[in-house]
Design a protein that fits this description.
Elements: H1 12-23, H2 32-45, E1 49-53, H3 56-66, E2 74-78, H4 84-91, E3 95-99, H5 110-120, E4 124-128, H6 138-147, E5 151-155, E6 163-164, E7 167-168, E8 175-179, E9 192-196, H7 199-209, H8 239-270, E10 277-278, E11 286-287, E12 293-296, H9 302-314, E13 320-321, E14 334-336, H10 340-348, E15 349-352, H11 360-377
Parallel strand pairs: 2-3, 2-4, 3-14, 4-5, 5-8
Antiparallel strand pairs: 1-9, 6-7, 6-11, 8-9, 10-12, 12-15, 13-15
Helix pairs in contact: 1-8, 2-8, 3-4, 3-7, 5-6, 8-11, 9-11
Bound molecules: pyridoxal-5'-phosphate.
């Protein structure tokens, strides 16, 4: 592809830390670079504790487990997000209550959450910030959840670095989770992070992510090492990936984030066409990070949008459709509520190349091609 959807930014620093890890002959969990990464990541998002794990999906699963989500519990999941949000609930044996999106930022619809809380009495709500944009009603949703004793897992996988006012996205829920797979705001291949301010939750997370084995420190007698408290997981991040993560977090504010925002601003400047609009708005007081830039074809049918997407792919411009509304997926234990908006956004959205290294002229070229194929298929 001439313009891939989103490539990672790798520098000499990542190579240096990976080499350090190899030179010290430590590839496993609890590596020095991983520990440094966890501290720096916590500072980045203003949280007390962070744990590096093997994927965003693992982070979600752990977050739910740490909140004791189990069979027959209800969890509110956005209808428009990565399938991992649903899979993690299913892995706990719980029911997912699918809630529709709002049309400004593609976050959860506040009024529909209110109805869902009343009807389903959920234990947890997953608040996802989509494509780098803080969810419109973040504070209202958190307040509503507090009032109703619903815990909030903030999923900032797509929005590391985004802010509302002076507050960092990912610092607001009871827990927050991040995917750091290669095409995210920072990426290590496959990886995730889970953060919280609460020591009791953090200790629980760390225990379940380490096979539920409480006697793993150097101070414990060697013969206690294989004793476990019950079902656990092997989710901690190995040192080679932790080394890449350390470099990524060190380069984030001054390099990676600035470049991503610059690309987002090119899109906002160049894509001015009454035939399509941005799928997401920049709201007052919100600072999005433009993880992905997407456009919405209000007046085209789904099949015409697909034709434009196929042409762009043929011409080396990699695109993605909107997320499949999760309520459409089979074989999950889920309960549907209204899903009008997620269906429309799925059918009429194209996600465009958003790599950190795109130049203004690249975005102009992408714009010309989108306009050309719109005219061809409208
Ligand atoms: C919002 C969101 N949550 C969770 C995940 C799952 O993360 P991972 O792919 O690292 O398992 C993703 C996508 O990767 C995501 O976009």
């Amino acid at each position: 592809m001439k313009f891939p959807l989103n490539i990672p930014s790798i520098s000499k620093l990542e190579k240096r830390y990976v080499k350090d890890a190899i030179d010290t002959n430590w590839l496993s969990i609890n590596g020095k670079n991983t520990q440094i990464f966890e501290k720096k990541f916590s500072n980045l998002i203003n949280r007390k504790f962070s744990l590096a794990v093997q994927s965003g999906t693992a982070a979600l699963h752990l977050a739910l487990k740490s909140l004791d989500v189990k069979k027959n519990d209800n969890v509110i999941v956005p209808d428009y997000t990565c399938v991992s949000n649903l899979s993690a609930v299913s892995q706990c044996g719980a029911n997912a209550i699918m809630v529709d999106l709002e049309n400004d930022t593609l976050g959860l619809d506040y009024d529909k959450i209110k109805l869902a809380i009343k009807k389903f009495k959920p234990k947890v709500l997953q608040l996802v910030h989509v494509y780098g944009f803080p969810a419109r009603d973040t504070y209202k949703i958190i307040h509503l959840c507090k009032k109703n004793n619903v815990k909030v897992i903030e999923d900032a996988s797509e929005s590391l670095g985004a802010m509302i006012g002076k507050k960092k996205i990912g610092s607001l829920g009871d827990l927050s989770v991040f995917s750091i797979r290669s095409e995210k705001m920072i990426g290590v291949g496959e990886g995730g992070v889970i953060s919280t301010n609460k020591l009791n939750i953090f200790s629980k997370l760390k225990l379940i992510a380490s096979r539920n084995s409480p006697f793993r420190s150097k101070k414990d007698p060697y013969w206690k090492k294989y004793y476990v408290l019950g079902e656990g997981y092997n989710y901690l991040m190995p040192h080679l990936l932790g080394s890449i993560a350390r470099a990524q977090v060190e380069r984030f504010n001054n390099e990676i984030l600035k470049k991503k925002i610059k690309v987002g601003m090119y899109y906002r400047k160049i894509f001015k066409n009454k035939n399509f609009e941005f799928t997401q708005k920049i709201l007052k007081n919100h600072k999005p990070v433009f993880w992905l830039n997407s456009i919405f074809f209000k007046n085209l049918s789904a099949s015409k949008v697909q034709k434009i997407g196929e042409e762009l792919m043929k011409h080396g411009i990699e695109v993605r459709s909107g997320f499949w509304p999760l309520h459409k997926l089979k074989n999950f234990s889920l309960k549907k509520t209204s899903s009008k908006n997620s269906n429309i956004i799925f059918e009429k959205t194209l996600v465009l190349p958003s790599s950190y290294n795109l130049k203004e002229n690249d975005v102009k070229y992408i714009y010309l091609k989108v306009s050309e194929f719109f005219d061809k298929y409208k």
